[in-house]
């Protein structure tokens, strides 16, 4: 596993093919220091090949209070601020466009950079206690962790503007309705669901997983003509893999599970 001994705010454990990354700075509500952001990048980039999915969650009563405001309370330095933001971009890109899917469990505060971090994950599960906010507006700053790119794509620009201009907070139900998360569960139920989903995602064929993580979001944002072409290339790459052939044969021979109705 990646060495995170220099990063006290992060903890990584494994459970079979799943790596469980915990934001572990509850006294500061898991506020993200620069070291923690760099550590997240190292954690997802350095996973052994046997790891096929990641679950990300937070210790204590909150998922993440965003940027460690203590670290911006110094002499203003424009160049340093730009590079700080670029460092967050790199780390969150490593999460979004890494080798394996990342499933986040959100509870309590999912605010500022915490919401930006969640937005970089592939599947978000909100527990009932979760609340989503972008207090950058109130702090006189702006999104800096890629949130202005990712969050409007999830919940729409007007709602992001409302949250940033007025300090509006979304409940877990509102966040689910708005598209900020795919699942909304009872308090304490998020981690078990995340592990279950992670095991399912870990069983996806390698080329399909690559396509879902890397090709799908690019296709969705591309000019449709480029999108169709990329899809055809990606589909043929996946379909001609021996693993795809074996899986299709398994279905035809009635050895593979059928699609099931929703529970
Ligand atoms: C922090 C931070 C932080 C808490 N940086 N220290 N994010 C924010 O503007 C959110 C600020 N935090 C809060 O609104 C609240 O702390 C919470 C709603 C998240 C939690 O409330 P609560 O009552 O459970 O905790 P608390 O008593 O407010 O905080 C406990 C301690 O954590 C306290 O320190 P202490 O030394 O007095 O014990 C707080 O100061 C500390 N703490 N949040 C530093 N964020 C790349 S750009 C991203 C831009 C942003 O993310 S801006 C949004 C920043």
Please outline the helices and strands.
Blueprint: E1 10-15, E2 18-23, H1 34-45, E3 53-58, H2 78-96, E4 102-106, E5 109-111, H3 113-120, E6 123-127, E7 131-133, H4 136-139, H5 147-155, H6 157-166, E8 170-171, H7 172-178, E9 183-185, H8 190-202, H9 206-221, H10 224-239, H11 242-252
Parallel strand pairs: 2-3, 3-4, 4-6, 5-7, 6-9
Antiparallel strand pairs: 1-2, 7-8
The structure holds 3-methylmercaptopropionate-CoA (MMPA-CoA).
3-methylmercaptopropionate-CoA (MMPA-CoA) is lined by residues 28-29, 31, 61-62, 65-70, 85, 88, 109, 111-113, 135-136, 139, 141, 144-145.
Please describe what this structure looks like:
- It is built from eleven helices and nine strands.
- It has helices at residues 34-45, 78-96, 113-120, 136-139, 147-155, 157-166, 172-178, 190-202, 206-221, 224-239, 242-252, and strands spanning 10-15, 18-23, 53-58, 102-106, 109-111, 123-127, 131-133, 170-171, 183-185.
- Strand 1 and strand 2 (18-23) form a beta hairpin.
- The chain starts with 9 loop residues before the first strand and ends in an 11-residue tail after the last helix.
- With 263 residues, the chain is an alpha/beta fold.
- It has two domains: 10-202, 2-enoyl-CoA Hydratase, Chain A, domain 1 (Alpha-Beta Complex), CATH 3.90.226.10; 206-252, Lyase 2-enoyl-coa Hydratase, Chain  A, domain 2 (Orthogonal Bundle).
- Helix 3 (113-120) packs across helix 5 (147-155) and helix 9 packs antiparallel against helix 10.
- The model has no long low-confidence stretch (mean pLDDT 96).
- The strands form two sheets. The protein has a six-stranded mixed sheet with strand order 1-2-3-4-6-9, with helices on both faces. Strands 5-7-8 form a three-stranded mixed sheet.
- The site of 3-methylmercaptopropionate-CoA (MMPA-CoA) (1HE) has 23 residues, from helix 2, strand 5 and helix 4.
């Amino acid at each position: 596993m990646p060495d995170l001994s220099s990063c006290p705010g992060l903890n990584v454990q494994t459970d079979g093919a799943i790596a469980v990354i915990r934001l572990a700075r509850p006294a500061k509500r898991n506020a993200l220091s620069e070291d923690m952001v760099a550590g997240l990048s190292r954690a997802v980039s350095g996973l052994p090949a046997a790891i096929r999915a990641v679950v990300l969650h937070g210790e204590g009563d909150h998922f993440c209070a965003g940027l460690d405001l203590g670290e911006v309370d110094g002499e203003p330095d424009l160049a340093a601020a730009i590079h700080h933001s670029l460092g967050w971009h790199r780390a969150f890109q490593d999460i979004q466009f890494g080798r394996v899917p990342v499933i986040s469990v959100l509870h309590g505060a999912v605010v500022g950079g915490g919401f930006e971090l969640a937005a970089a994950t592939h599947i978000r599960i909100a527990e009932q206690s979760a609340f989503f906010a972008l207090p950058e507006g109130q702090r006189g700053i702006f999104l800096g962790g890629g949130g202005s790119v990712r969050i409007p794509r999830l919940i729409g620009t007007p709602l992001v503007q409302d949250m940033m201009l007025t300090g509006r907070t979304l409940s877990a139900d509102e966040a689910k309705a708005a598209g900020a998360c795919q699942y909304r569960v009872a308090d304490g139920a998020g981690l078990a669901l995340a592990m279950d989903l992670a095991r399912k995602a870990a069983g996806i064929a390698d080329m399909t997983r690559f396509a879902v993580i890397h090709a799908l979001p690019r296709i969705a944002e591309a000019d449709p003509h480029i999108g169709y072409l990329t899809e055809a290339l990606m589909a043929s790459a996946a379909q001609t893999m021996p693993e795809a052939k074996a899986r299709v044969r398994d279905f035809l021979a009635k050895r593979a599970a059928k699609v099931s109705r929703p529970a």
